[in-house]
Write a structure and sequence with these properties.
The chain has ten helices and 19 strands. With 445 residues, the protein is an alpha+beta fold.
Length: 445
């Protein structure tokens, strides 16, 4: 009997995916558990394994964009005809360009323009080709044809002034910086100057012609699409559908700083370097076991307390952020947790997160301390009912009687869904997290 192969759903908010590459050709044989095809969404790229052994019959060609659950193939017994007769014609074998890592929009744009992806320089994680890369490749010939000798952006001292981002982008696009007019302070070339030059349009701030008195130049428009669009839709829905309440507490981090420094040295030989966020995630996981109302989700029938503690950790990327999941975080040792968080962060930035890496989070932790932020109001990641924000560690002060004492302090910001959690249980959870971080050796047991 034929086994249906359906396009997997990678996350609750996935609305479409691309059958990026078939690993087994039409008519080829596959073993159960063998990689069958590669799927891409705007957020992740993953390999999907076969659920059965048999002969593969393609229904959808490589490059097809479909909804989750769509039928893309059958796995047949030897000699078994495909359901419904001859079925859909086999898709042509993928060429080398199909194997180039690229976002779905970049693939569609390149296909429409007749450009092989292998000819496009990718600037995304691990050389992934983005939509901007394809557009820059399309615009490059026109820009070269339109380019006229421009006043070099070289000051009298002979040094070419440009921002690091502008230098890196010019190298990626093959643009001579000396030809780019700089609009920054003192003629410094900015990233926007290079982008404008590569697209063959006037640089920001350059005069394109006479303007009416008081008329302002048009502002730059950043398209709301891809990962940015997904984040915008999810965060707006989160605020619209939940009754979110934020609260904060100060935690003294002196002992946590000492513990982390000791563990960095002790675990160095094993290649494990715990971060302060790892300590917070471990403390939150232990606290969730004591305060299960925050490890829950709201259903139509009521509030479901979830049996496992899977903590999502927000990872910032160039186009937005993703939230890979540390599964059973309460059961992992701190060393195991630190190793897993390092693996997930590297996979997120390299674009290699798998389906299981992104699914099933019951609570989330997000950190902005590395950006110098003390306090913020994190937005809950549905369908969770709470999220914990981590600020920077800073020099603070406490009083020992009449004597001021220096301390290392950090602010934790908790946002709860008031439909499921009241302020008092939320505060009790947050207080437990603070107590664990102030006596952090309890995180090792």
């Amino acid at each position: 009997m034929a086994t249906e192969v359906l396009l997997v759903k990678a996350g609750m908010t996935m609305t479409e995916g691309v059958v990026a590459e078939w690993y087994v050709p039409d008519g080829g044989t596959v073993e159960k558990g063998q990689p069958l095809y590669r799927m891409e969404t705007e957020k992740i790229e993953l390999e999907v394994e076969a659920d059965a052994t048999g002969v593969v019959h393609h229904v959808a060609p490589a490059g097809a964009t479909l909804e989750p659950g769509a039928l893309i193939a059958h796995i047949l017994a030897p000699g078994e005809p495909p359901p419904g007769g001859a079925g859909v014609a086999a898709s042509p074998p993928a060429d080398g360009a199909d194997r180039v890592p690229a976002s779905p929009i970049a693939r569609r744009l390149a296909q429409a323009a007749g450009i092989p992806l292998s000819a496009v320089a990718g600037t995304g994680p691990s050389g992934r080709v983005t939509e901007a890369d394809v557009r820059a490749h399309i615009a490059a010939p026109a820009a070269e044809a339109m380019a006229a000798p421009a006043p070099p952006a070289v000051p009298r001292d002979g040094e070419l002034r440009a921002s690091p981002l502008a230098r890196r982008l010019s190298e990626q696009l093959g643009i001579d910086l000396a030809l780019v007019p700089g609009t920054g302070p003192g003629g410094r070339i900015t990233k926007e100057d290079v982008e404008a030059f590569g697209a063959g349009r006037p640089t920001p701030g350059a005069t394109a012609g006479p303007r009416a008195a008081g008329e302002r130049p048009p502002g730059r428009v950043i398209p709301l699409r891809g990962m940015r669009k997904v984040i915008a839709e999810r965060m707006h829905a989160s605020l619209r559908e939940m009754a979110q309440l934020s609260m904060a507490m100060e935690v003294t981090m002196d002992e946590a700083v000492k513990l982390r420094a000791a563990l960095v040295t002790e675990w160095e030989a094993d290649g494990v370097k715990p971060s302060y966020t790892d300590l917070v995630i471990k403390a939150a996981a232990k606290a969730l076991a004591l305060h299960p109302l925050l490890n829950a989700t709201v259903r139509e029938t009521g509030i479901e307390l979830l049996p496992h503690i899977h903590v999502g950790m927000a990872v910032a990327l160039e186009d937005g952020l993703v939230v890979p999941v540390i599964r059973d975080a309460d059961a992992l040792s701190l060393k195991e947790l630190a190793g897993e968080s390092t693996r997930l962060a590297a996979a997120a930035r390299g674009g290699t997160l798998g389906l299981d890496d992104m699914a099933g989070g019951t609570f989330s932790v997000t950190a902005l301390g590395m950006a110098g932020v003390d306090f913020f109001t994190p937005v809950i990641n549905p369908p969770n009912v709470a999220i914990l924000g981590v600020g920077r560690i800073r020099e603070g002060m406490a009083w020992d009687g009449d004597r001021p004492v220096k301390q290392r302090q950090m602010t934790l910001s908790l946002t709860i869904d008031h439909r499921a959690v009241d302020g008092a249980p939320g505060a009790a959870f947050l207080n437990t997290v603070c107590e664990l971080l102030e006596a952090p050796y309890r995180l090792l047991v």
